[in-house]
Every structure is written in C-alpha cells, then in structure tokens.
C-alpha cells in the first residue's frame, strides 16, 4: 500500500469562494451521446427498448436508480428458455448452475431462489467458499440468479466468499460482506451490503468481474475498507465496471490507527482497468479512492488504469459537511483527501465527474468536464488532454446539492427501484443536468418523471411518484 501523502490543506480553497458561472461547459448536442449530454435543459430521458428480455435503458445518475444492469444478462421479465426454482441453499444454486449447457444459457436461464437466508463462512482469502468452481463463462449470455419473490427476500447471513464462479449474474441478494475471488464474467447487481464488498484475483487473470448498483447505505465506525479491488501474487484483475454504486463513509474509531479508504485498489499482483461510472463514494478517513500503483511485471502496462465516469468522490470532511455527521466515538478527520495513490501516470481518465478533496500528485491521460475542490490540481494533476477545473465553492457545498443529485439510499428508496421486474414499468426517470461547477446555479426543470406515465413529482428522487401514478411497483 502506498504511504499516505502529506497533508493537503484546503482552507485556502474555502476562503476563495467566488461565483464561477463562466466555467459551465458548452457541450455539443450529439444525438449519439449519453442522456446527460443531450437535451438536459428540456428534461429528456432515455426509454426502454421494448425488446423482449432487454433491460431498461440506463439512466445516467450518481448512484443507484434501478437501471444499471449488465448487458450480457437478460432482464427479469425476459422470455427465458429455462427457469429453475431452487431452495435457499448454496448447494441447490450450485447444482442448478452446473446443470445447464451453453445453448440453454444463450436461450436464457433464470435460477430463482426461494425466500430464506444463505449461510456464510467468512470473507477472507482463506475462507471456505460455499459456491466454488461452477459456471464456464463461455456462452454469450450470463445465467441470472435472483430471489424468486424479489429484493429483500434472500439474504446472506454472514460474511461469504464466492470463488471461481464464471458467467453468472447474482442480483437482488443482500449480504453483510461479500468477496468474489477469481470470478471472471460474473456480476453482482442490485444488492445492499452492510460491511464490505470486494473482488480479487488469486490465480491467473480475472476479467469482467463487475458491480452494478452495489450499495453500502449506512455510515459506520469501523476499521476495514468497505470496497476492494485487488490481485494476489502472480495474478491480475482488470476490465471491471462498477456502475451505479454508492458507499457511505466509514469513520475510524477514536484512538485507533488504521488506514481506511472507501475503495482501495491493492495487492502484490497487477490490478487495472477499473471503471467507476454513475457512482458516489463518500470518503473514509484516508480517502474515497486509493489507487495504489502499477507493478513492473504487469503485462498490460500502458493500458487504462482507472476511468472515473460521471461520478462523485468526496473527502470525509465533505461527507460530514454534506450528509453524514461525525458519529460518537469517531476520530475527526484532519485531511481533506479524496484520491490517494499514483495509479499509472497518463493512464487515468476522468469525465463528467466531481472530486471534493485533494488528489495525489500524478499525471492524468484525459480529463473532460470534471471539477475539483483541490486548488493545486491544475498544477499537480495535469492531463495530456483537457484539465481539471478548480472550483473553490466545492468546499462549502451544502447537503441540498448532494440531495439533488444522489439520493440517500434508504430501504424504501431501494425497494422502489429494485422491486420492479417489468422493463417498461416502475423505473423512475431523473431529469439530469449537464455537469457543471457547484458554484453555478443549475437551470432546467426541477422534477422527477415517473416512467411511461410521465407524471411529475418532486425533484428529490427519493420521494415516490405522486399519488395516482399508474406505474406498478
């Protein structure tokens, strides 16, 4: 793990607050661009395709909204060629995964788990894996494993390690601590975890192990990193997407000395190719994102190390100011750090993102339409293409700014976005604005539209649609 960088004081930034409306980017209207870059002022939003089995079109956001979903996995109401109902046991799930052929998977396989509680046996690198070495990942689609009765009906009772599972998407299964080891072509989706979520490589190369709307909703006082992306000796993990995710801050206990990051990239092996998209990560004590650095024997040196796409990272001091008051018994942070670690120079990319805090000194490959509260970023974090826009007003942004962009993922909110099984119903559309500096007063409609019925509700997406909305949950 790289040493913590020297203290970055941002007091100067707070003293230099000034309107910066001139920094609002003027993006071209590109019909092929994502929705947040088109027609934002008129409240346009994407719509479902209507194709059988297709997931809802992704609505760009800064956290979960029910529409982030792996492209290789049929949606819940697809015309599956094979539906297998199983008991709530790891053995039953394992046997069902092993029982199907690639041809059946291409036609669609849905394993529906009965309500209940799955056991866990620990989530360390040496823990027993109750689900191990099943699935092949050789079909063009993934097997879908989800609760038969919907989100909230299947829970993993204790920490769990899943090892060597390939070509499977686990969705709407909640847990305490989940470790995915050597799980290429496997997705974890629409899930609430309470302690941590990690993916690692321990043998060979792991590709396409992804997280879609994985949420750690509650702040806590603890000494462990909530999110991890790691590779052991003689192994590699790469080509991973974390999309629509959310993590509340972890506060260090007063008197402890542990080094805590929200999402840490680490290990003796090679790790890279991580994309964080449409996500919000509130900082742990040290940082929101620990990049680590490249390994000399990494076979893919010179390829993208990290991509930050339409996401929000905050230092813990900003998390306290904006949403999560310092808990009793927690150490009060002294750093204003959002990103630590060098990553690989010229292989870091940022687009349409906000970084509320300081960053480790490193060269970025490209930075587009992205803003930071770090006053030294224009000098210490230069990019080969584009540049970070320094906005001192970001140091004093209030809770309302975050509430308008990334709703607190309460159980009621998660139930409202993860309970639907129909593509064309139950998905709320948040009318987004083009990312711009927080000092700019955003224009455009101040509403949420509910799916196909288009009834307007409050701007705050955590509220349900207005009474009388015909959309079923």
Please tell me about this protein's structure:
The structure is a single chain. Helices cover 9% and strands 31% of the residues. The protein has a domain at 47-72 and 185-424. Residues 1-52, 424-434 and 440-473 have low confidence and may be disordered. The strands form 5 sheets. The chain has a 26-stranded parallel β-sheet that branches. Strands 11-15-20 form a 3-stranded parallel β-sheet, with no helix packed on it. It is mainly beta. The protein is globular, with a radius of gyration of 21 Å. The relative contact order is 0.14. The chain contains 7 helices and 36 strands.
Which terms summarize this structure?
26-stranded parallel β-sheet; 7 helices; 36 strands; disordered C terminus
Radius of gyration, CA atoms, in whole angstroms: 21 Å
End-to-end Cα distance:
45 Å
Oligomer: single chain
Strand content: 25-35%
Mean pLDDT: 82
Question: Outline of this structure?
Answer:
Helices cover 9% and strands 31% of the residues. By secondary structure, it is mainly β. It starts with 10 loop residues before the first helix and ends in a 16-residue tail after the last strand.
Q: Can you lay out the helices and strands and say which pair or pack?
A:
Layout: H1 11-15, E1 82-86, H2 90-98, H3 102-107, E2 109-113, E3 116-118, E4 131-132, E5 143-147, E6 154-156, E7 160-163, E8 168-171, E9 175-181, E10 186-201, E11 204-207, E12 209-216, E13 220-221, E14 227-231, E15 235-238, E16 240-243, E17 246-247, E18 250-251, E19 261-266, E20 270-271, E21 274-277, E22 280-282, E23 287-290, E24 306-309, E25 312-314, H4 316-322, E26 337-340, E27 348-351, E28 354-356, E29 358-359, E30 364-368, E31 371-372, H5 377-380, E32 383-386, E33 389-390, H6 399-403, H7 411-418, E34 428-430, E35 448-450, E36 455-457
Parallel strand pairs: 1-2, 2-5, 3-6, 4-7, 5-8, 7-9, 8-10, 9-10, 10-12, 10-14, 11-15, 12-16, 12-17, 13-18, 14-19, 15-20, 16-21, 17-22, 19-23, 21-24, 22-25, 23-26, 24-27, 25-28, 26-29, 27-30, 28-31, 30-32, 31-33
Antiparallel strand pairs: 34-35, 35-36
